[in-house]
């Protein structure tokens, strides 16, 4: 009885496998359009629509970032909906740090300028220090980014943060220095990184 039971199973398996090739058939048929792959016009709209907005872009679109870009004739600036002093650092400072990885306007400016201005408010040190475990991974991601401008924004933000939190950043520096040392080989950034490291040392004190 057991052997007959075993024999039945392969049959059902075979029957299933016979029906399987039929089901992908219709899915394969609409494919032969190599022209679509070669024609950038057909690729572009799909790429734009299928890519979901970044977390920062989504928060910005919902009004979750209480500042907006104001286009000036000479210089752009940020306009805050309320005084930056009254804005809770958690989660805004972390969100702005994550936004440093953006490559599209106006997110690039809003994240960079917002991060800088928020760190300039009174009491920024006390507000920023508890957020370091979340800020450092965001800065690390910006410093690891292949885009030169993103790296530059990450480096500026790191120095700004170091100036505000001082030695509190020392324990986290090991997570960031690898990305800085990689870029030291790049002539474009050698001087900028050297200056940044000197400032980190200055703000971090003897231990750094």
UniProtKB/TrEMBL annotation:
SUPFAM superfamilies: ARM repeat. It comes from the Eukaryota. It holds the Pfam family ParcG. Residues 23-33 have a biased composition (Pro residues). Residues 1-40 are annotated as: Disordered. PANTHER family: PACRG-LIKE PROTEIN, PARKIN COREGULATED GENE PROTEIN PARK2 COREGULATED. This is PACRL protein. It comes from Lophotis ruficrista.
């Amino acid at each position: 009885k057991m052997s007959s039971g075993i024999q039945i199973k392969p049959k059902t398996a075979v029957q299933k496998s016979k029906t399987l090739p039929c089901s992908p058939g219709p899915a394969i048929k609409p494919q032969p359009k190599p022209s679509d792959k070669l024609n950038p016009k057909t690729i572009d709209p799909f790429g734009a629509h299928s890519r979901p907005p970044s977390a920062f872009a989504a928060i910005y679109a919902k009004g979750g970032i209480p500042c907006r870009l104001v286009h000036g004739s000479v210089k752009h600036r940020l306009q805050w909906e309320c005084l930056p002093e009254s804005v809770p650092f958690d989660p805004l400072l972390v969100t702005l740090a994550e936004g440093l990885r953006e490559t599209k306007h106006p997110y690039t400016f809003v994240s960079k300028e917002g991060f800088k201005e928020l760190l300039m408010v009174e009491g920024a040190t006390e507000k920023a220090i508890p957020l370091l475990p979340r800020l450092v991974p965001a800065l690390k991601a910006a410093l690891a980014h292949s885009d030169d401008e993103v790296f530059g924004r990450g480096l500026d933000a790191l120095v700004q943060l170091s100036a505000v939190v001082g030695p509190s950043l020392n324990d986290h520096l090991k997570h960031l220095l690898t990305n800085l040392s990689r870029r030291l080989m790049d002539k474009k950034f050698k001087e900028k990184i050297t200056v940044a490291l000197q400032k980190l040392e200055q703000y971090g004190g003897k231990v750094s």
